[in-house]
């Protein structure tokens, strides 16, 4: 049943429950991020870049300094500084591009990947197991709802 079909009070209760659930997930994610930051010895920005590189690598892709600048809305100089910090901490290394010798890709080091896996590996496994229990039709609806929540957050973050 959609919220439009509920009486106002019930719709409001359902909306509040949804917002509370989103808030709780966000709070739990922040707590996990804090644990990961401690394990890796990095700040919020560096963690966000490491998580981005991890996602890109898990999907079989690669990233460059320019990709980090674009993704995080920072200058190429700032992105380079972030990469230097992560490289000096032995969390990221630059590797040659397979077809363009002028380009250097960024990858997590084995040490960074292992430390990330030690902290979040069981979380990933638990999430995978949970998602396997969701019937396909419900999965599609869940993805649709999460996309709508994301769109609402994006809209609110860009409106003046």
Strand content: 5-15%
Provide the gyration radius in Å: 19 Å
* Helicity range: over 70%
The computed structural class is: mainly alpha
Most strands sheet? 2 strands, antiparallel
The strand line-up of the biggest sheet is 1-2
N-to-C SSE series?
A: HHHHEEHH
Shape descriptor: globular
Number of continuous helical runs: 6
Mean pLDDT across every amino acid position: 88
Number of strands: 2
Low-confidence stretches: none
Distance between the termini: 33 Å
Label this structure with key terms.
single chain, 160 residues, mainly alpha, two-stranded antiparallel sheet, 2 strands, globular
Summarize the structure.
It contains 6 helices and 2 strands, in the order ααααββαα.
Word description of this protein:
The protein has six helices and two strands, in the order H-H-H-H-E-E-H-H. It has 160 residues and is mainly alpha-helical. A two-stranded antiparallel ribbon has the order 1-2. A hairpin with a 7-residue loop joins strand 1 (92-96) and strand 2. Helix 2 crosses helix 4 (76-88). It is globular, with a radius of gyration of 19 Å. The two termini are 33 Å apart. The mean pLDDT is 88.
Topology:
Blueprint: H1 8-40, H2 44-58, H3 65-72, H4 76-88, E1 92-96, E2 104-108, H5 110-132, H6 136-158
Antiparallel strand pairs: 1-2
Helix pairs in contact: 1-5, 2-4, 3-4
